[in-house]
């Protein structure tokens, strides 16, 4: 990073850039800029000392964007009001303190924001920011606002739960299913990263939910495109191709594709699908990014002249001299048509130098879930699957024995019926004796340590039999989640030719096992109807899985670097995705949208 112009006044710079870009967007006649300039003067300021704003790569707390919408172009400013202290909670408080003025001066409507504020703005905030705003400067000089909140406010592991609860709060809970499909690979690869609300009357307010897709494929994105009304997989793929220079397959640059589903009012059917392509991670410099922007406009059929004019007016350095002035080029579809948006970073603090393209982009901060087996295990231990929205909704609603019974029946179907056989396959096929030693110990535990009456399968069957009276009618549909997970486990442990896949899966099996057992333990302790004998399996497992998790760390340490680690991590990820999908399926079964 090269230090440039941080000595200049940020507010003055922002006002200057808005003045320069404005004629491109709205034409040259006396621009009614007063409200925009008044806003900028009041809110744009450097961050608190020691605070790193996430708004831009160089931590400048503002970003401009020009959207070419079906009904015309639009100029917007994303800004982070500085907190008194360098914390997300403090930043959120400072931004909130601005609300009365936004209401008073600009007619902002904060009803929806107030509904979800308790979820996203806790006193102990664990996210990267509290509350951002985007100002939309309209042609007539009026200003509208959007608010952005951080789903990681209660930690990354709780992001899905936080968003699902917020949707419930807003009357959108039936829309969660679509969001879950967008984030289907779970929190490591598909984290929920932003939650935005229009600060307008609730009936018209859009709620947008953002999922950052790491290592996505074109197929993932095409599937995402079908989640919203008017979605167009081919148009989306053409855009991604134009802005990455990659034709098909995996999009593995350091930065994720940031996708987003938009809802209107309390209608649970998404009306908008957007993908923000991080062009800076693919194009070696901004001159190339500009060419790709042009290509994207051609592909979409939208008019690119406004964006090109704005980029030229905005640029304060040669485009080939750096990377990141254009952080994203996005594409969205609604029933009304397509929209391509150009994002512009001011580089007030730093300019990132040109780089080698898709492989040479800036490295992401803390890419999950780690590069070694122990790191991956640690990540999943720290981000428990027990925070999955299905389990959390179960825990917050009145105790429902049929649902608990259904989980157990599905576990039985997916896991316990076949687990020792599957594990034995991996034990037999690994050629690493240390690994085999640890796995064989676990296998022996599963099989009752030589006592056939004490196999975990039998204990579990007894447990499930005790729950059968509460279970709903068993059909193919009620066992579908288990069938799907079972098929994946069979593939990982038995069918996959490389046994390191099964070793990786085992690492996570034990971590997830411990997390779900202790979750279920808490749920069963909410009732007093079941005899202790039925609960034997649970208490036994709660203890045993604790030991197993320690063993799992030992096991992870024994996986050699290089190929075995690479393959084992694939097994970890495959099981992580399958486990998350299992609970997504359970959610659908329990609360059909
Ligand atoms: N800089 C952050 C990021 O890259 C946040 C952000 C700013 C962003 N503008 C954006 C994210 C546009 C997606 C799209 O993630």
Task: Describe the 3D structure.
With 593 residues, the protein is α+β, with helices and mostly antiparallel strands. The chain has helices at residues 10-26, 34-43, 88-97, 99-106, 111-120, 159-169, 176-182, 218-225, 233-244, 286-300, 305-314, 373-382, 389-396, 401-416, 419-429, 433-446, 456-467, 480-495, 499-524, 532-557, 563-590, and strands spanning 2-3, 62-69, 72-79, 131-137, 143-149, 192-198, 206-213, 216-217, 250-251, 257-264, 272-277, 329-334, 337-345, 350-351. It has 2 domains: 2-351, no CATH class; 373-590, Heme Oxygenase, Chain A. It contains 21 helices and 14 strands. The strands form 3 sheets. A 10-stranded antiparallel barrel has the order 2-3-4-5-6-7-10-11-12-13, surrounded by 10 helices. A two-stranded antiparallel ribbon has the order 1-14. α15 (419-429) runs parallel beside α18. The radius of gyration is 26 Å and the shape is elongated. It starts with a strand and ends with a helix. Mean pLDDT is 93; it is low at 1-5 and 360-366. It binds tryptophan. Residues 54-56, 63, 78, 258, 276, 327-328, 343 line the site of tryptophan.
What's the short story on this structure?
By secondary structure, the protein is of the alpha+beta class. The chain has helices at residues 10-26, 34-43, 88-97, 99-106, 111-120, 159-169, 176-182, 218-225, 233-244, 286-300, 305-314, 373-382, 389-396, 401-416, 419-429, 433-446, 456-467, 480-495, 499-524, 532-557, 563-590; strands at residues 2-3, 62-69, 72-79, 131-137, 143-149, 192-198, 206-213, 216-217, 250-251, 257-264, 272-277, 329-334, 337-345, 350-351. The chain starts with a strand and ends with a helix.
């Amino acid at each position: 990073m090269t230090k440039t112009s941080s000595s200049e006044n940020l507010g003055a710079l922002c006002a200057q850039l808005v003045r320069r870009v404005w004629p491109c967007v709205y034409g040259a006649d006396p621009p009614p800029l007063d409200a925009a300039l008044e806003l900028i003067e009041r809110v744009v300021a450097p961050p608190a000392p020691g605070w790193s704003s996430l708004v831009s790569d160089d931590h400048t707390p503002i970003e401009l964007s020009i959207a070419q919408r079906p009904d015309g172009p639009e100029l917007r400013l994303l800004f982070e009001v500085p907190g008194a202290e360098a914390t997300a909670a403090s930043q959120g408080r400072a931004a909130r303190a601005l609300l009365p003025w936004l209401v008073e001066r600009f007619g902002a409507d904060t009803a929806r924001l107030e509904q979800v504020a308790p979820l996203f703005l806790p006193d102990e905030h664990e996210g990267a920011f509290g509350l951002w705003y985007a100002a939309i400067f309209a042609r007539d000089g009026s200003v509208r606002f959007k608010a952005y909140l951080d789903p990681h406010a209660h930690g990354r592991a709780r992001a899905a739960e936080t968003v699902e609860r917020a949707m419930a709060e807003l009357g959108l809970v039936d829309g969660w299913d679509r969001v879950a499909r967008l984030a289907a690979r779970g929190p490591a690869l598909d984290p929920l990263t932003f939650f935005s609300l229009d600060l307008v009357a609730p009936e018209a307010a859009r709620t947008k939910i953002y999922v950052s897709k790491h290592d996505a494929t074109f197929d993932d994105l095409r599937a995402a495109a079908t989640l919203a009304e008017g979605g167009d997989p081919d148009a989306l793929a053409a855009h991604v191709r134009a802005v990455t220079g990659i034709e098909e397959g995996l999009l593995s640059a350091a930065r994720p594709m940031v996708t987003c589903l938009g809802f209107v009012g309390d209608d649970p059917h998404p009306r908008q699908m957007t993908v923000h392509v991080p062009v800076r991670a693919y194009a070696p410099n901004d001159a190339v990014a500009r060419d790709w922007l042009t290509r994207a406009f051609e592909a979409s059929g939208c008019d690119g002249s406004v964006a090109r004019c704005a980029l030229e007016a905005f640029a304060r350095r040669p485009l080939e001299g750096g990377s990141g002035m254009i952080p994203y080029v996005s594409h969205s579809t609604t029933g009304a048509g397509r929209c391509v948006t150009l994002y512009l970073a001011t580089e007030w603090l730093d300019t990132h130098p040109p780089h080698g393209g898709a492989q040479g982009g800036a490295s992401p901060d803390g890419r999950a879930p780690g590069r070694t087996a122990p790191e991956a295990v640690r990540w999943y231990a720290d981000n428990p699957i027990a925070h999955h929205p299905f389990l959390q909704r179960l825990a917050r609603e009145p105790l429902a024995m049929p649902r608990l019974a259904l989980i157990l029946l599905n576990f039985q179907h997916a896991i316990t019926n076949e687990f020792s056989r599957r594990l034995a396959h991996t034990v037999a096929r690994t050629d690493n004796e240390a690994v085999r030693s640890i796995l064989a110990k676990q296998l022996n535990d599963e099989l009752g340590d030589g006592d056939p009456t004490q196999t975990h399968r039998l204990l579990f069957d007894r447990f499930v039999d005790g729950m059968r009276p509460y279970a709903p009618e068993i059909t193919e549909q009620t066992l579908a989640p288990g069938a799907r997970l079972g098929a994946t486990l069979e593939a990982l442990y038995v069918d996959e030719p490389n046994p390191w896949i099964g070793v990786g899966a085992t690492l996570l099996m034990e971590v997830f096992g411990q997390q779900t057992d202790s979750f279920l333990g808490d749920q069963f302790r909410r009732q007093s109807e079941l005899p202790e004998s039925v609960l034997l399996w649970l208490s036994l497992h709660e203890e045993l899985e604790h030991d197993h998790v320690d063993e799992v760390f030992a096991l992870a340490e024994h996986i050699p670097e290089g190929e075995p680690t690479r393959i084992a991590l694939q097994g970890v990820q495959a099981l992580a995705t399958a486990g998350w999908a299992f609970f997504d399926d359970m959610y659908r079964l329990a609360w059909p949208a």
